[in-house]
Amino acid sequence: MVNQEDPRVLRTRQLIREAFRELLQIKGFDAITIKDIAQRATLNRATFYTHYVDKYALLEEITEEAFHKMIPEQVENAQEFTAEVCAELILMTHRYIVDFYRICRVDSKSIATLVNEKIKSMLQQIIESIFSKGNNHPIVERQHTKIISAMTGSAIYAAAYEWLTVGEIDRTDLLVDIVRPYVMNGLGLSQSLRE
User: Which Pfam families has this protein been placed in (predicted)?
Assistant: First the structure.
């Protein structure tokens, strides 16, 4: 078992992540092999496998790590899902998507699908956590919270992604003005239906 706190382990993992990021810009995900990553990181393949099962596990870790670094403090500490928190989530998701597509050559549907699903899942978890804070809902209510969180996260993600492809990428204020009322009105309607 590898000691995750050992400075040598942390350094090796950092080398692997940096090599992978560099290769994503050059080759694209599907073309990258473990041998490529190991060579660029100046390690052997066995060392790579000591730290990661495969390149998909590495991609998942990098995606999650980058996403969590972008979460604003206001969202992390939110006790309720307000219009301001909604705006922060929209902006954060848009920034993440833009950064991801700038850094990576996305010539493969497999990487885009994996990353898209991971981001939607993390968004759902954040939103569900905010909805659940301080409330002792019965199990049925928790199931509703999970569904509403999934729908809210999916709406935010889909709008941010669409904005990247067809919107005015630098007009994030306009993106927020379009998406936030939709999400907040939907949540308001959802709340009134449950009462």
Answer: TetR_N
